[in-house]
Structure formats: C-alpha cells, structure tokens
TrEMBL record:
<protein>
    <submittedName>
        <fullName>Putative tricarboxylic transport membrane protein</fullName>
    </submittedName>
</protein>
<feature type="transmembrane region" description="Helical">
    <location>
        <begin position="170"/>
        <end position="189"/>
    </location>
</feature>
<feature type="transmembrane region" description="Helical">
    <location>
        <begin position="138"/>
        <end position="158"/>
    </location>
</feature>
<feature type="transmembrane region" description="Helical">
    <location>
        <begin position="355"/>
        <end position="375"/>
    </location>
</feature>
<feature type="transmembrane region" description="Helical">
    <location>
        <begin position="470"/>
        <end position="491"/>
    </location>
</feature>
<feature type="transmembrane region" description="Helical">
    <location>
        <begin position="108"/>
        <end position="132"/>
    </location>
</feature>
<feature type="transmembrane region" description="Helical">
    <location>
        <begin position="387"/>
        <end position="407"/>
    </location>
</feature>
<feature type="domain" description="DUF112">
    <location>
        <begin position="20"/>
        <end position="438"/>
    </location>
</feature>
<keyword id="KW-0472">Membrane</keyword>
<feature type="transmembrane region" description="Helical">
    <location>
        <begin position="319"/>
        <end position="343"/>
    </location>
</feature>
<dbReference type="InterPro" id="IPR002823">
    <property type="entry name" value="DUF112_TM"/>
</dbReference>
<keyword id="KW-0812">Transmembrane</keyword>
<feature type="transmembrane region" description="Helical">
    <location>
        <begin position="12"/>
        <end position="32"/>
    </location>
</feature>
<keyword id="KW-1133">Transmembrane helix</keyword>
<dbReference type="Pfam" id="PF01970">
    <property type="entry name" value="TctA"/>
</dbReference>
<feature type="transmembrane region" description="Helical">
    <location>
        <begin position="250"/>
        <end position="267"/>
    </location>
</feature>
<feature type="transmembrane region" description="Helical">
    <location>
        <begin position="209"/>
        <end position="229"/>
    </location>
</feature>
Length: 502
C-alpha cells in the first residue's frame, strides 16, 4: 500500500502545470530526435542538459527522462518509412518494418510500434515501482565471468539473426569482433589497430557505423537505381492502422518483448539494442510462419519495439537505486542530478522519495502523451513517403552528417560514417547482411573484457568459470547451440556423401 500512496503523491506533483509542460517538452523532443537519424537521445540530452540546470531538480530530471524514453518511440518511424534507424536500438525494426511499408502496411507497422511501446513502457514502469530493489540486486550478481558468458551467448545466438548463409553471418560477426578491438587496451594501455591515428584510440563508435551501414548504404542504393524511386514506400490512408489479423498476431510478441526487454535494461551496455535482437530471434523461432521474417512480418516489429522500450524504462532501476548509469543517456541523467547536489544510489529513494515517485508518475504521464502523439499523427509521419526522393534523400543525408558530427563534435566520425556507408553498399551488393557485423561490434567489448578480467580473477583457470552458476548456464547453452548447428550442417553433408557413393 505504501507504493500506491507514494505514487498518488507523485501524481499530485506531476499533474501540476509546470511538470506537465516539461514532461511534454521532453517527450516531444525525444520523439523528434528519435525520428531524426543520428541525433538520438544522447545527443538531444547533451544539447538540452544546460537548460535543466536552471530548473527544479524534479523538472529537469523529468524533461531529460522524457527525451530518453521518447526517442525510443520516434526511432521506429524512419526505420519503417525509409529503412534508416533513427538510433541504434531501432536497427532491427528495419528488417520487417520497412518491408511492411513497401507493401503498403507502413501505417500498421507504425501503429503497432506505438501501441507496443506504450504497453511495454507502462508495464516496465510497474516493475520499476514494485521490483526495483530485488531486480537491481540481481544485476549485481554479474561479474566479469558472467559478462563473458553473456557475450559469448549473444554472439552465438545472434550471429545468424537474419537467416541466410550461416557462414556469411559468422564472417560478418568476426569482422565486427575485430572492429571492437580497435582502440586503447584497457588492461595494458597499448594502442591496438590504430595505425597511428589518434582518433582511433577511443575506439570506433557504434552510431556512425550503424548510420553508415544502414543509412548511407541505402542512399547509395537509391542513387545507383534512380528508376526505382517510384517503388519506394507508399502508405494509403485507409491502411494507417492494423487490421484484426495484424493486431491478433502482435499481442503475444508485445508481451514477450516486454519480458525480454525489462531484465536486459538491468545490465550494463547497449541493453535496448541487445533486447531487440533477442526479441526478434525469439519471435522468429516461435512463429508459425518463420519464412515471413525479413519480408514484412508484423511480429518482427511488435516484439523488438516492445523490448526496446521496456529496456529503456528498466534501465532507470540501476540508475536510481544503485547510482549506476549503465548507458550514455542515464549517465547524462546522473550529471543532471549531480548539478543539483543529488546523488542517485541505495539511499536515493529513502532520502529523495518525493523525487523518485515524481519521476515514476511522470513516466506514466509521458507514455500516455507519446501514445496520443503517435497514433493520431501516424498519417503525418507516413506523409514523409510522399516527399520526392530527390528532396528527401539529401535532407536525410544532411541530418545524418549533422547528427554524426554532434555526437563527439568530430570530423573523424563523419569519415567513419562515410567509410562504413561505402562498405555497407558493397556488403549488400555481394549478398551479405551487415546486421551480424553490428552484433560483433556491440558484443565484442563485453566478450573480451569479461574473458580477460575473469581470467585475472581465476588466475588463468578457465574451468573455474563453470563453478559460477550463471556463467556455467550461459556457457552450457552456448555449447549446445554450437553442437546443434554443427550437426545441422554435417548430417545433410553426410547423407549427400552416402547417396553419391551408392
């Protein structure tokens, strides 16, 4: 009952005109920055962070938090309409959302993404209210060996995310792993694969890589096939919302996506991105029509979008309850609170309970605002497809370059984006899919640091990893998956060889 009473008090404060205004500004800016490729929540929060310094601590935190989870809504829009993820976590949405849009179901995909995001975000807020201490303690159980197991598990399970040739997918993962090693070695302090380039010492940022592989590569493809411009997305007004079959097929993916995304938000690293990958893989395995994935399956939009928003909300748990910013956006939230002399951590709820429940209440309100903004304005977003390609593509290109530069104010990031844009175009032209490369780049650091730090803990005895229950479980599942994949490839070859001998 205490939680209900505290939440009621939080709503009493959050429903004031000032708090409603800053909440609306936050979610609206988040929505817009999610649509604009390259800016993303981190860039928008960094730009508006000075504005929060002059606000009340609650108002500043509400605005910045609104930008954070609001951008998760907006990121799906360009993913579906122009095959360009507004931010990294929307990458998976391009796989089926864009194909739905090309079939005239872009409005349905946008509606399901908005509804799934609202349901997942709301359920995740309930979890934030009631289970924050328990779930935050669970995240503390992960040491370096557990992160190694998680990284290995992710690389194996997600390597063949989009189907097709397993060998090609593994090759892309290996390239991604190699790219993840670029930069300063955190253990020895030595430069690795920097070739004397100072900018590479900090590593290769994910955002310009994703923008290049999936943004510029798409623009290059359009430029190489100008006569296909008229075949780009067309969304009819009467098809703006999902039909009964699409709505029915989306129910369980939304629920499963929420259950996948919520615990992922409790872990350090790109939780939103990883949760979308896992959700997509899960939906593909459970689907009765797995062949539809990659060709416009509504489950491929509903599940990952729900997982993404659940993860972004649950990421607030370790931030508020432990003071651990497990992602760049929550690190900016931490900076906003520290300016006001407030330190998130185990004592935060007891010392600043009114602020905690104010934020929780505002997240409920913000999710409703986002739903109201999205569903009636689906037609407005879909109208972007009516803009001529010769106008739209230069605008998107300009926004991408501005966004890539604004992340670190670095010209070098623009060169990275351009290089991966060319690479992405070549990769697609050769029949490869760049998504596994991104998987390797994202999980490579988690995999390597977990392995090296874990070996230091066990004094080089790898077998001790299996004495830790979580690590042993992850490694055991990974080994079984590898064996099954090897058998799947070897048995047909053996049968083919035996039939040839006969």
């Amino acid at each position: 009952m205490d939680a209900i009473t505290n939440l009621t008090n939080g709503f009493a404060s959050a429903l004031s005109l000032e708090m409603l205004l800053v909440c609306f500004i936050g979610v609206l800016v988040g929505q817009v920055t999610g649509v604009l490729p390259g800016i993303g929540p981190t860039g928008a929060m960094a730009i508006l962070l000075p504005l929060s310094f002059g606000m009340d601590p609650g108002a500043g935190l509400i605005m910045l938090a609104g930008i954070y989870y609001g951008s998760m809504y907006g990121g799906s829009i360009t993913s579906i309409l122009v095959n360009l993820p507004g931010e990294a976590a929307s990458l998976v949405t391009t796989l089926d959302g864009y194909q739905m849009a090309r079939k005239g179901r872009g409005g349905a995909a946008l509606s399901i993404a908005a509804i799934g995001s609202w349901i997942a975000g709301t359920l995740a807020i309930v979890g934030l209210m009631f289970f924050a201490p328990v779930l935050a303690n669970a995240a503390l159980a992960f040491g370096p060996p557990e992160f190694f197991g998680l990284g290995l598990f992710g690389l194996i399970v997600l390597s063949n995310l989009t189907g097709g040739s397993f060998g090609k997918s593994v090759l892309m993962v290996i390239i991604g792993l190699m790219l993840s090693t670029v930069g300063v070695d955190l253990v020895t302090g030595d430069d690795r694969l920097t070739f004397g380039v100072l900018e590479l010492s900090k590593g290769i940022d994910l955002v310009p890589v994703v923008m290049g592989l999936f943004g510029l590569a798409e623009i290059f493809s359009v430029a190489m096939a100008p006569y296909q411009n008229s075949k780009m997305i067309k969304v009819k007004l009467k098809e703006m919302y999902p039909n009964k079959q699409e709505a029915k097929r989306s129910v369980w993916p939304i629920i499963r996506g929420t259950l996948v995304g919520f615990p992922m938000g409790l872990l350090p690293g790109p939780a939103g991105f990883m949760s979308t990958l896992i959700s997509y893989k899960l939906e593909k395995q459970l689907s009765r029509q797995p062949d539809e994935f990659g060709k416009g399956a509504i489950e491929g939009v509903a599940g990952p979008e729900s997982a993404n928003n659940a993860a972004s909300t649950s990421a607030m748990i370790p931030f508020l309850a432990l003071g651990f910013p497990f992602s760049p956006p929550t690190a900016l939230l931490l900076g906003g609170l520290l300016v006001h002399g407030i330190t998130p951590g185990p004592m935060f709820i007891s010392q600043h309970g009114d602020l905690f429940w104010l934020v929780v209440a505002s997240m409920y309100i913000g999710n409703v605002m986002l739903l109201v903004l999205n569903l009636p304005l689906v037609g407005v977003f879909a109208s972007l497809t009516r803009v001529p390609v010769k106008i739209l593509m230069p605008i998107i290109t300009g926004i991408m370059f501005i966004g890539a530069y604004s992340i670190n104010n670095s010209i070098f990031d623009l060169w990275i984006m351009l290089a991966f844009g060319i690479a992405g175009f070549i990769i697609k032209y050769c029949g490869y899919n760049p998504a596994p490369l991104v998987v390797g780049l994202v999980l490579g650091t988690v995999f390597e640091e977990g392995l090296r730090q874990g070996l230091m803990m066990t004094e080089g005895n790898f077998l001790m990893f299996f004495e830790r229950p979580i690590t042993a479980t992850l490694l055991g599942i990974s080994i079984v998956i590898v064996i099954l994949n090897v058998l799947k490839i070897a048995l047909p070859l053996k049968k083919s060889s035996a039939s040839n001998k006969q």
